[in-house]
Amino acid sequence: QVQLVESGGGLVKPGGSLRLSCAASGFRFSDYSMSWIRQAPGKGLEWISYISDASRRMSYADSVRGRFTVSRDDARNFLYLQLNSLRAEDTAVYYCATESYYRFDSWGQGTQVTVSS
Amino acid sequence: QSALTQPPSASGSPGQSVTISCTGTSSDVGGYNYVSWYQQHPDKAPKLMIYEVTKRPSGVPDRFSGSKSGNTASLTVTGLQAEDEADYYCSSSAGNNNLRVFGTGTKVTVL
Questions:
Q1: pLDDT digits (tens, 9 = 90+) for A44-55
Q2: Can you spell out the DSSP letters for A19-65?
Q3: Over the stretch B27-38, which tens digit does the pLDDT of each residue have?
Q4: Alpha carbon A62 to its chain's center
Q5: How close A108 comes to chain B (CA, Å)?
Q6: CA-CA-CA-CA torsion sign (A110, A113, A114, B3)
Q7: Residue A110, min C-alpha distance to chain B (Å)
Q8: Is A104 in contact with B91 (Cβ distance < 8 A)?
Q9: Are the C-beta atoms of residues B75 and B37 closer than 8 Å to each other?
Q10: How confident is residue B1, by pLDDT bands cut at 50, 70 and 90?
């Protein structure tokens, strides 16, 4: 069955960087578009980035555009999110999810990112 | 890119029905039939419950149904059960720039 496992989260100072990974298994990863979604403590879900199959199209929420970069490695079945210029308001659990026609079918368990001095 | 508007809370007794609204604009909810709904229990990842306004993924009980009128989508849960107590989020396609947007979330309490 579909399995998505995020990693790479942690504690980072404001202005710092992190790279999140999402390991995919149980399905043909290269055929699927993917998204990153985050959830700040006690808050709602926020979609932040999308990447199509074959990396043909990428898009970002206004809140992260210019600071975060999504990429994928179809040979290794990995999705990535590079987080730069981190701010306190980026503190959240970050989920990766498969996406089909704007629906998020399968989700990982999430990885915690904490931005604090 | 503003979040879709949902009521903060909704409640019902076991066996009753509850309906949650999700209000957007003609640039998101009203402009596309790509509204989906997610259920999230505490400290768990969200789960897809409804997609493309009215469709249910395999395994989701038919007690869950979706609809849309104009710029407002709705999720109805009939025959409420204790395990339906959770947070619910809508999401939608949001314009021509390949964006997506979530709702503010609704906490459903089974009394």
A1: 999 999 999 999
A2: EEEEEEESS-GGG-EEEEEEE-TT--EEEEEEE-GGG--EEE-TTTT
A3: 999 999 999 999
A4: 15
A5: 7
A6: negative
A7: 7
A8: yes
A9: yes
A10: confident
A vs B, Cβ pairs < 8 A, gives 63
- Between the alpha carbon of residue A36 and those of residues A30, A50, B15, B54, B102, the distances in Å are 16, 7, 36, 24, 13
Q: Which residues contact A96 (CB under 8 A, 6 or more apart)?
A: A4, A6, A20, A22, A34, A35, A36, A37, A79, A81, A107, A108
Select from A44, A59, A101 the Cβ nearest to the Cβ of B89: A44
Question: Residue A102: its chain B contacts at CB < 8 A?
Answer: 32, 34, 36, 91-93, 100
Enumerate the β-bridge partners of residue A58: A51
Quote the pLDDT of residue B48: 98
Encoded tokens for A10: 């942690």
**What is the DSSP code (8-state) at residue B29?**
G
The answer to whether B89 contacts A102, with C-beta atoms less than 8 Å apart, is: no
Count Cα atoms within 13 angstroms, Cβ side, for A98. Answer: 21
For chain A, say whether B103 makes contact (Cβ under 8 Å). Answer: yes
